[in-house]
Structure formats: C-alpha cells, structure tokens
Design brief:
Number of helices: 9
Structural class: alpha/beta
Number of domains: 1
CATH architecture: 3-Layer(aba) Sandwich
Order of helices and strands: EEEHEEHEHHHHEHEHEEH
Number of strands: 10
CATH topology: Rossmann fold
Helix content: 25-40%
Distance between the termini: 34 Å
Length: about 250
C-alpha cells in the first residue's frame, strides 16, 4: 500500500546566522490511506508550520512533500490550485465561512471554484451524517460555533479529497461541541475511509486519533499508536504521559 502523504527530511528555516529560527528541522514521516494522525506540540514547536508546508501555503527550505506520489513543492499554476482545492481538504480553527453565503453555498464553494459537478449523493450523505440538514439555508451569523464547524467539515470533504488537514478544529468550540465534532471526524475516518491529519494542542481531541506524532523544537520527539482494542481513555492517558515530558497536559478525558 502506497502512502497518501510522504515527507522526507523536511526543513523550514527563517532568518540567517545567529538569528536563524529552525521552525522545522528535518522531519520525515508517512501517512497511510485511512489513517487518523494527530500532531501535537507546544506553541512554537513547528506543528503549524508543518501543516502550512503540507497545504502549500508556505514553501519548505529543504526536503520533499509527496501527495499520492506527486512532489507538491514542485507544483505551480493550475496543478497547484487543483492540489489545494481538490486533492486536499482543509478544516480551519475559526471556520472561515463566507458570511453572505448560506450553509449549503459554503459547502459547495469548492465545487463551483474548481468547475466540478455537484455530487448530490455525496452532499446528502455528508449533510445527513454531520446533522446539518436543518441549517443548510441559514447564514453563518445564524449558526452556533458547532454548527459552523460541521458546515466547514462538509465543505472540506465535499470533493472527497485524498487528505483532510485539520488545524486546531476544536479550538473555537466548547467541550460539548468539540467532542461532537471529533466523534463525527472519527466516524468519517472509520466508516468513509477519510484520511485525516490534525494539528491540535487538545489531548481530548487527539485521543480520537489512531496515531500521534509529538514535535518539539522542529523535530519529531516521540510517536505513539493506538493498539487494537485500546480504549480512548487509555490512549488519552498515554498522550498525557508524553505531554508531561513536553511540559503540557490537560484535564480529564471528555
């Protein structure tokens, strides 16, 4: 089985000489089809920079990023636009919905931007699973935070991309809505085969993943995997043990 994402010796440096910052300093890993991978680390550890490199928002200083065998750091023009809009879905912390579009119009925005055909079956499947049918005609100002994020999740998934990138997806949600969102993402991973890579500082959210990479000072510090049959509570406690070494943690599992 070929990896969906393959990263080798990735580096991202800012500045020169003594003032140089090594945001990412030689990270290598793969993401296999159907994985739910979490990336954790303290503020400034490099996790957001890593996500931005994968999303082709910024260019790495060295190393390679391959998406389904294609080196994305060599893409340009329409090929780069296709990667950003169709091969990859992005779920933001602050939803990034367009205020004057309805929920349905926000979901279908990638379809219209990339000249794709609306897949009514997929749209209906996603909106039903995410329980957002009743808010499709509402505008973001009429939605709760949890509803906005579920609309944003449907938008990220509508074109059935090979990889979903999630940047602190629970960061703007209360604990109840955060757990509801993560349960939905876990279900999409297990039932729909969605491959998800999530940056998070939230150990509760991370406990829904099946593998966690911990980054410190731009390097891979540690990695843990959820064993077959291991409970989310037990995996959560394993996460906390690593975070304790990194100097972080959180309250009880939700």
């Amino acid at each position: 089985m070929q990896p969906v994402l393959k990263i080798e010796s990735l580096k991202k440096y800012y500045g020169k000489g003594e003032s140089q910052t090594k945001a990412i300093d030689g990270i290598s890993f793969e993401v296999m089809p159907g994985e739910f991978l979490g990336i954790m680390g303290a503020s400034g550890s490099g996790k957001s920079t890593l996500l931005n490199c994968i999303a082709a928002v910024i260019s790495p200083s060295a190393g390679t990023i391959e998406m389904e065998g294609t080196a994305i750091n060599k893409l340009s023009g329409s090929a780069l636009a296709k990667y950003r809009g169709q091969q990859m879905g992005y779920l933001f912390q602050n939803f990034e919905l367009i205020d004057n579009l309805t929920g349905k119009e926000n979901i279908l925005l990638p379809v219209s931007l990339h000249g794709a055909k609306v897949d009514d079956e997929r749209l209906n499947k996603l909106t039903s699973y995410l329980e957002i049918n009743e808010i499709l005609n509402k505008f973001p100002s009429q939605m709760s935070g949890g509803e906005k994020q579920r609309i944003a999740a449907a938008r990220a998934l509508i074109l059935n991309p090979g990889l979903i990138l999630c940047d602190e997806p629970t960061g703007a949600l209360d604990s109840k809505n955060a757990k509801a969102l993560m349960t939905k993402l876990e279900g999409l991973n297990k039932e729909d085969g969605a491959t998800i890579l999530m940056v998070t500082h939230d150990s509760n959210a991370a406990s829904f993943c099946n593998r966690i990479m911990f980054i410190q000072d731009g390097k891979l510090f540690h990695e843990i995997r959820k064993d077959d049959g291991e409970s989310r509570q037990d995996f959560y406690e394993s996460i906390l043990k690593v975070l304790a070494q990194l100097g972080g943690g959180s309250a009880n599992v939700l």
